Amino acid sequence: MALPRRRFDTLIIGAGGAGLNAALQLADSGARVAVVSKVFPTRSHTVAAQGGVNAALGNKLPDDWHWHMFDTVKGGDYLGDQDAIEFMCREAVPTVYELEHHGVPFSRFADGRIYQRPFGGMTRDFGGEQATRTCAAADRTGHAILHTLYQQNLRARTHFFDEYWAVDLLRDEEGVALGALVLCIETGEPLLVEARTTLVATGGCGQLFRTTTNAHINTGDGMAMCLRAGIPIQDLEFFQFHPTGIAGKGMLITEGARGEGGYLENKDGERLMARYAPHAKDLASRDVVSRAIAVEVREGRGCGPDGDHVLLRLDHLGERVVAERLPGIRDLCRTFLHLDPARDPIPVFPTAHYAMGGIPTDRFGRVVAPARHGPEEVVPGLYAAGECACVSVHGANRLGGNSLLDILVFGRAAGRDILAFLEANPHHRPTEEAAVERAMARLERWERKGEGESPQALRDELQRLMEDHCGVFRDRATMAEGLQRLEALRARIAEARLQDHSRVFNTARIEALELENLADLALAMVTCAHAREESRGAHSRVDFPERDDRNWMKHSLFFLEGARVDYKPVRTRPLTVESFPPKKRVY
Amino acid sequence: MAVPARLRWRCRRGLLELDLILEGFLEDGWERLDEAGRAGFERLLQQPDQELQGWLLGRTQPLDPGLARTVARIRGE
Hints:
Chain A is α/β, with parallel strands linked by helices.
């Protein structure tokens, strides 16, 4: 079948902050860039990042990128690669100034300098006093950055394929990336985008879980595409949860609610945190509170008809405190639960927030995978940046204000390295027709007619399974059972059928393809979490409660073929400074 | 009349709150809109996510009376 084809120097999949910052570097240098995005670019999940971007500008208090580096290494529980972390913390400063020059409307101090706010985990002088490092554009930093980058890309003549869905990457026999097969959602027609370089910037995969803060678009498409293209996914067992999401819906109830005196209660009316953290109680660290809630639910002390949540009580604080100090929470509760937290308790459950793992890359954004000569060989022409990538700067746990920084710094770095690659590789390589056929087969699989389960119901089941078997409560038996159930579910997904085979805006078809992506990532996550017998950062095992540096200070690599797990060492040597050796992570 | 598939996709936004509110309205409220109401809903979907969030959570009001009517409808006011 003759497919329509378009040719570009670079194909970027995903139009969040990472993709758009890379696109801008390239388009401003004269490269022909295509950005493929499944939703209109300014509706990417980057808009949800409200807090800010960490950069040691020192606008309020003295600061140093080296202090920021220490915080990031420690925050990641020593699983982060220190060369990449040094690079990120140094580059943070010019990256923020570049954004300022592009027109991002940062908030200002009275003297005109960029406003910075204090954020958790950020310290001065290697673990000393609180730092003021997080640059913000009011409470809409992500939105401001995304809109500015989009406008700049329009000016620079980046070509946008809006509402196109990427099906699969194309590689030739030597493993070189050649672009991707994409699908126009409006017409349902496939299109081959041939490119000398391809950047995957598709964001996170929070839709693996029933309760998540992530938008519905966050289905890990780029990570799954890489898995199918033979590239491993790194450290996916590390997934950050927030203890108090609105049960069954996922939106965040900030820690501020407990800071103001809110407390958690089980179905017997017991203040449950007194049992798990007798001193800190409801203000214990996120992982402790999250696990306590999960244990209550598992042991039958959950609330509601399904016993699947606990209650967060604010009603004792009084109308005035709730109205004045927690107005955002009140808006959320009124809109989604039709209740007033000044009178009624809020049903909560831990909510999945951020993937630390992803497509393994180096600090230039180049995808690296084990090959003949070592564990980190560059995949020619293939790049990844943002939440879908694992550089790894967040290690086992990400700090607030470092996710926007990650997407901007490594989007920019990838853009620059791509320019060098384009210069060294001036010609398009021939597209391998066998690779195109494999990608087309993925689409055609959903043309099968007849009886079969609906992808929507299976997606619900998958999300529930992940919450029950690979959420905040992890031990060997729970995850082993999860793996078994997942195997059965994956077999059912392979036999699922679409009822509607129409072309135009067939969103059920897109959701079926997303389900396949989620199912592959679920396998990666449970397999690696089951294998890692220690607790580190966000990966918390009740049967292995301690960090084990001797056996486990290493990155996991999951390969789809044979569901195999391999490991590679953490890069503990920074670029120019001394290494930070692992220490117990206490705050 | 069934909800046009195009609208279903365009209710996918960058923020979970908006996904839930807009998709929920598509299921429960869209069919009861008249022609002008449906046009108003399409116009609302063209607005930036941050504005939509403020309006649909009741924190701010759109200045445009047409958008304000649509927002009130979705919020069940």
